[in-house]
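User: Quick sanity check before I run a bigger batch. Here is a single chain. Can you write out its predicted 3D structure?
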Amino acid sequence: MKLPPAACLFDLDGLLLDTEPLHGRGWSEAAAHFGTQLSEAQLMQLKGRRRLDCAAQVDAWLTAPVGVEALLAVQQPIVRALLPDASAMPSAQKLVAHCHSQGIPMALVTSSSRVAVEFKSRPHPWLEQIRQRVYGDDPDLAAGKPDPAPFLLAAQRLGLNPQNCWALEDSQAGSQSAHRAGCQVWLVNASASKSPDFSANPCEINSLEVVLQLLISTDG
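Assistant: Done. Predicted structure follows.
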């Protein structure tokens, strides 16, 4: 683990914004509309993945598959009605502000499309401090998480070696993507130990506050 990092590469859903329960509700209600109940384990498999990848997976789980377009026609209105109420995750705004004030380069590495990010970010202007972005529908993106492509593209656009970057994630798909790209990965898990193993990669932490305090300790 190198301090300070060359850059911080942030996931969005479930890491900076508390949107994952809302996305999960959308997929669950859409599946129920077509006569299938999704389990919590199935919903966990969708975390961190691109919308079309999720839709294809959920469609495959349906008792009688209806196709991605029909599924999204039900799921998207549900989610769009919920997303404006999503709050910032604990310490997310403070961490982004600290990186900005200290000149630590940042990139958003999200599975969400550009339009979806703009929509869900509207109530959170502090996210505008993250200028460099890799979206799930980025034309230069070869594959989505858990493939390493998103984090490799983010590091490339910042002109940095991914091995010198910190990647902050909350999902297994995102963590695998960042780890395969060579980043030092911080996997936020609310049930993680309060005494994380800083030598581990991924390093499980219980809050973004852990990363914020590590960065503050290196100031000056």
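Residues 68-82 form the longest helix (15 residues).

User: Great, the batch can go ahead then.
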